[in-house]
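Progress against Task 2.4 (sequence-to-structure conversion) is shown through the following example record, which the project officer requested during the mid-term review.
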Amino acid sequence: MNTKTRLTTFHKLCLLGTILAFCVIVLGAYVRLSHAGLGCPDWPGCYGHLTAGQAAENQPAANAAFPERPVEYAKALKEMLHRYLATTLGVVILVIGALAWRNRQDPLQPVGLPLAAIGLVIFQGLLGMWTVTLLLKPLIVMGHLLGGLTTLGMLAWLLLEDRRRNADRQPRVVVWPVVAGLLVLIGQIALGGWTSSNYAALACPDVPTCQGQWWPDEANFEEGFVLWRGIGVNYEFGVLDAPSRVAIHFTHRLGAILTLVVLISVALWVRRRTSIPAVRNATSLVLAAVLLQVSIGIGIVWFGLPLPLATTHNGVAALLLLF
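Structure tokens generated for the chain above:
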């Protein structure tokens, strides 16, 4: 395989990996939001089997092995499909890293980032295991979400860098407001993960107020943001009291307002200072996506957390990160 062929293969694998990473994130959100995160109470198998179907076929033995969590085939199937897709993504990233290392003498071939992606996907596998073995501990669930988004970002970066090398070079627009906007977005995504993993999405069932107040009196911010509560606690459906969940939800709302203002400001700031079509198009996508995301967030509360809308909320967050 000559250098040109290897670079073309590398580009295709990065594209495949980016698509797979996005699908893993959305499917992971669907699994979590449909309460199937513990659909298989063991790891990496499902009730000691390779597939959810085998667990269902041997249901009496599976139930005896895990009496605290009887087999629910629909939930087990969702969980295993997510694991299969995540494993496929891991294999693709391993191949990307191997190809980058093999072609490391080529000055056009990135090596450090593909190898870092391998390290990250291994750590993601550990987080996936801990999500199950530590019974949906919010800090682990949130970390798993951020790790998935980081994986998506790294693969997309490799894809864009590869395209940039094969196109007319344009001056980069890397400015501090853009970095600040990215950091605010990451912080808001983390808050969203914390809200979801603590089952606080409907702690404020009204919009735009929360519990009928502009600033809820009973919000317990100190208790709501305790990151670690020990081993052995089952966090499925949440363990926090109402005031703690209100604090989490309300903080996420405040973060949404901040993110909306910052991203719109940064997008308009960049748009006024560049004539590069690709960059201007990216700012348009950011503006559209952030407005859509806020609308979806309002809809989630207004309609009582419908699963399709909540899953889409995670997907749009991933798209915002890419834009």
